[in-house]
TrEMBL record:
Residues 2-65 form the RNA-binding S4 domain. This is Pseudouridine synthase. GO terms for biological process: enzyme-directed rRNA pseudouridine synthesis. CDD domains: PseudoU_synth_RsuA_like, S4. It comes from Aerococcus suis.
Length: 240
């Protein structure tokens, strides 16, 4: 038997934390009876409903996706724009992205229907390293790079320490490619950090997530995560 909130999370309905709130708010029923006790355990024979809609225990799935630019990191968009799940028409499970990449940012994104797994990776306490490659206007000085590495104030708050290096310089065009590895997940953080040193971003790509990289994938392509990769991600989150 499993805890009710875990069953809801594994069904892809919500993260475990959100599932707990659903239970406390009286939105969950087991065998026709509203349940508000977080310690409740259910078996495979129990009938669970959230907002009067039955949930089904889906087999957990995990995907690594190369998000193209011009795509929304969401499962739907009220303005009819392309979203990341549009690239998974063959997947029957209700998958959703772990975290987000901006509309104009490309690169590595994970998708799953495992709410508990997604929550563990997105929780601020367990943020994994994420490496970005940014083509910027301007050439950062050594002082600028030290600021990025030691933390820089954006939105009134200093960022955590980061790994920062210059990969390429084009003196004629006064452009550079900067690699930045961060573990925080603040809104538009990389763009704001580079703007803070007067090097606005032209193009931004997430190249690594923890130990994962894009490999030979092209924009719009994906692959299932290997079981050993899923286990390793869980271990990294638990040890963070």
């Amino acid at each position: 038997m499993d805890r009710l909130q875990k069953v809801i999370a594994h069904a892809g309905v919500a993260s475990r934390r959100d599932a707990e709130k659903m239970i406390v708010d009286g939105r969950v029923a087991v065998n026709g009876e509203i349940v508000t006790e977080l310690g409740t355990k259910v078996s495979t024979n129990d009938h669970v409903e959230v907002d009067k809609v039955p949930i089904y225990k889906e087999e957990p799935v995990y995907y690594l996706f190369y998000k193209p630019t011009g795509v929304i990191t969401a499962v739907s968009d009220d303005r009819g724009r392309k979203v990341v799940t549009d690239y998974f028409p063959e997947v029957e499970q209700r998958i959703y992205p772990i975290g987000r990449l901006d509309y104009n940012t490309s690169g590595l994104l994970l998708l799953t229907n495992d709410g508990e797994f997604a929550n563990s990776l997105m929780h601020p306490r367990y943020e994994l390293n994420k490496t970005y490659s940014a083509k910027v206007n301007g050439i950062p000085s050594k002082s600028d790079m030290n600021k990025l590495a030691n933390g820089i104030v954006i939105d009134g708050k200093k960022t955590a320490r980061a790994n920062a290096r210059i990969k390429e310089i084009d003196k004629d065009k006064q452009k550079a490619i900067v690699e930045l590895t961060i573990h925080e997940g603040r809104n538009r953080q990389v763009r704001k950090m580079l703007e803070a040193i007067n090097c606005p971003v032209d193009k931004l790509k997430r190249e690594r997530y923890g130990f994962l990289d894009l490999g030979n994938l092209q924009p719009g392509e994906s692959r299932p995560l290997l079981k050993k990769e899923v286990h390793r991600l869980k271990d990294l989150a638990n040890k963070a």
